[in-house]
Structure formats: C-alpha cells, structure tokens
Design goal:
- By secondary structure, this protein is α+β, with helices and mostly antiparallel strands.
- It has 2 helices and 4 strands, in the order E-E-H-E-H-E.
- Helices cover 18% and strands 15% of the residues.
- The longest helix has 21 residues.
C-alpha cells in the first residue's frame, strides 16, 4: 500500500477524531462522478424492509426512521471499476485511509502488504428538506463520507448539515 501525498486535517471531537481531506484536482472529475452516480439506479426511497431480511441492500433490517427525502444506492458502489472517474475517487479514498493509519500510528506501522477494502459503499442524494440523522454502523470501526457535490448547502439552515454525536453512550 503506497502512501500518496494527501493532506489530512485532524479535528478532535468527543472521544475520537474526525479526519478531513480534500481530493486534489477533484474538479477535473467531478462532473463525470456525478454523471456516473445519476446513472446508477437507486434503491427505493424511504424504504421499509421486511423483518429478518438482512443482509439485503441498504443498512439494517429495521424501518429506516432516521432518514427521509433521499435516494440511496445499494451498498456496492465501489464494486464497479469500469468508470475511470470513480476509480480515481476510489484510489483517493484508499490513499486517504492509508495516510490516516500512518498518522494515527505515527508512521511506525508497515502497511506495504496491507489491502484496504471498502465492504460497503453507497451514495445518498438528499432532496431539499431531506436528512440522514443519528445512526450507527455496527461492527465498523471506521466510516467515511465523500461529498461529491454540496449543492447550495450552508450552515444557516438545517438542510445538509452533518451532526456528530458522542459514540460513548450509543455503541453497544
């Protein structure tokens, strides 16, 4: 696993840290990534899954009360490697995770034979007034968000704002 020059910002929050990074030259592929995402058939919006149906597509076997007004793909977005723009995004995500591992471990870990896999990857297209609120990713020590296009988002209204809660009271 090769370390690439990706700048990482660390933001302490509660008892953990949030790592932020910007993809260099993302604007060169942004429209291709958006076109690809819009070509992927999303799952049913605001779906309710039958009892004991896990692991079907999506997250969790329960009614999805924590999200409304969004389109969500199946959790295998990164499995398709036929799109060059998406491949660049996947490569950036791998490089970023590698750099975070090295940063957290102060570069004392040999990652040369590591393989980082993204077991679930999907997109959300949030409609005006839509949200994806409090939830957990059980059995997942690391999660990430890549913003393809933030649209007209701002911090003055409740649209399009991520909230991070302390995991200490919520992780089983």
């Amino acid at each position: 696993m090769n370390k690439k020059n990706v700048e990482i910002q660390i933001r302490p929050l509660h008892h953990f840290s949030i790592f932020e990074s910007m993809m260099p030259d993302y604007n060169e592929i942004k429209e291709d990534v958006k076109s690809y995402i819009y070509s992927v058939k999303p799952e049913v919006e605001d779906r309710i899954r039958p009892e004991n149906s896990y692991p079907l597509t999506g997250i969790g076997p329960h009614e999805q009360r924590h999200k409304r007004g969004l389109l969500e793909s199946n959790p295998n977005l990164f499995d398709d490697t036929s799109n060059p723009a998406l491949n660049k995004l996947i490569d950036f995500c791998h490089s970023t995770v590698t750099n975070i591992i090295l940063e957290v471990n102060k570069s004392v870990v040999d990652t040369s034979d590591w393989r980082i896999g993204f077991f679930d990857s999907w997109f959300h297209i949030t409609k005006d007034g839509g949200y994806h609120d409090y939830h957990t990713h059980y059995g997942t020590p690391w999660s990430g968000i890549f913003y393809v296009d933030i649209g007209d988002s701002n911090f003055l209204d409740v649209n399009d704002v991520n909230r991070f809660y302390s995991p200490m009271n919520h992780i089983p």
